[in-house]
Amino acid sequence: MTHGDDEPPRVLHERTLASTRLFRVEGVGLRFANGTEVEFERIAPRGAGAVLVVPLHEDGRVSLVREYAAGTGRYELGLPKGRLEMDEAVLDAANRELREEIGYAAQRLTRLRTLTLAPGYLSHSTHIVLAESLTPDPLPGDEPEALEVVHWPLDALETLLSREDLTEARSIAALFMTRCHVQERDTV
Amino acid sequence: MTHGDDEPPRVLHERTLASTRLFRVEGVGLRFANGTEVEFERIAPRGAGAVLVVPLHEDGRVSLVREYAAGTGRYELGLPKGRLEMDEAVLDAANRELREEIGYAAQRLTRLRTLTLAPGYLSHSTHIVLAESLTPDPLPGDEPEALEVVHWPLDALETLLSREDLTEARSIAALFMTRCHVQERDTV
Hints:
Chain A is of the alpha+beta class.
């Protein structure tokens, strides 16, 4: 059974239910092709989305950062990431986050994919960027405390996954996609 | 440089900034070990988290569903998923979502990992469950329109990734983790 793209639901209304400094909760009224009407809630973050960067060094190691995450209330390991600034291009944002969080700049940046987190209720999207040809070039960041940088061989991704502080779906997906990308490139 | 677990930031306050049917936005005041104080915003979804199920058939195909996603405003492909109901065990929720969304029940359920989406500002967690030994056993679902079910060989994950409607980081991470899990099991 195939459906949908010919007849997506009609948007009946969009209304702001709540608004804070970072988030706006919207109610979206929809009428589906079969006549069903429903109001969904979704979160529209402020801003233009985020970048998540895979810093891949010449020796095959990737750099991750370990920082306190206020959402889960514990220290989490993940790839460097951050919000796009106003009018900032994706690759510029990737290089800025890289310099701020691990102190390296990349000569070679490749967009791998744009990911969503929970498309049913978050409009947020994250651009995944592979960063290579890395040279030291730090920028001061805006973190409340210094980040811990962790280097790990991309070949040893399975053992990295055994760490309990690596939980973020975006980072795990990006690491696997990077390994696929590099393997495909190396076999051409 | 290692930090953190010995001296995590102290929680100065937690306050509700906004509240809707599905979401509560919290402000969390933190004092880090270096003395820096900051208030973060985070979203605490109602309920006990979610399950995301990888239905793996005997012929090596996985089942995904394609449905309208109100957050992004388009049809999205992803693995079957849903919220845990009150007091519901993770594996029970996985089997229920499986029956509702693809019409199969699993005799064999394995928890692979618990993922977060954006641990910096979402407290949400998703339990990834591998479902095998599948037999037809549908339950009526609560979707506003019928779901399209898409079957895909797990071996052909790279070509699945070429589909533009597969964007969800959780689903992509879960598919790669499943392939690792199955490969490791088969080589033992």
